[in-house]
User: What shape does this take?
Amino acid sequence: MQNSYIINTHSHVNTLKQTPIDQALANAKEKNISIIVPSSSNDDMFEVDEFVKQNDGIYGYVGVYPEFAKDFSDKTLLNMESIIKNNPKIIGIGEVGLDFYWDKSFADIQKEVFIKQIKFANELNLPLNIHCRDAYFDTLEILKKYNKNSNAIMHCFSGSFEFAKECIKLGIYISIGGVVTFKNAVKLKEVAKNIPLEYMLLETDDPYLTPVPYRGKENQPSYVTYVCDEIANLRNTSSEIVANATKTNTLKIFGR
Ligand code: NI
Assistant: This one.
């Protein structure tokens, strides 16, 4: 990771449908981009484990996404533990968190599973990659109360500048994705322009949320350069400065 141009902290490159995965990986390699791939479910953490073992410059997270919180069990934690023990390229817990946008009917289960995974990350002293959608207040309350020692990343940040400041007060990092390139993303542009670079990370969350100029097509990890360029533009600085600062933050978070 140290020698890469950019570290993309959240890419589901293993799930691309329209772009051949080998091609997407080659494109990322050509631009010297390292990638961290999140897990989302009980099954897919094993796929991520295999995928990162097979590919250079690719790292992974294990965790259960809020949508699948009902599937989470003690067995899940045992599986996560054994994957981490056996694969040094699994470097964090994610994506975990709360999503009240699609379905709020099992909010309590989502919270319970989020807390369990925070405690687990704390035990192993691993960073947390957090999915938070329409659950800003609850996510922060839970982190305040339960997170003791894990670095936390708000992935694909979608909150206001005010919320970003609240996060930063707690030492939480803000990861910015392709939405920042959209013309109408006024709130996110404000965040990208004004938060301290020391708290910023870059990602794509591909295959979703493709940045301009490829909006409408399938996203891929190398497009993180468009995210970086847009942020540099907004801040009136160079892409190299944004790439380098976000890389330094990522290396610090992951203890590398
Ligand atoms: Ni994701």
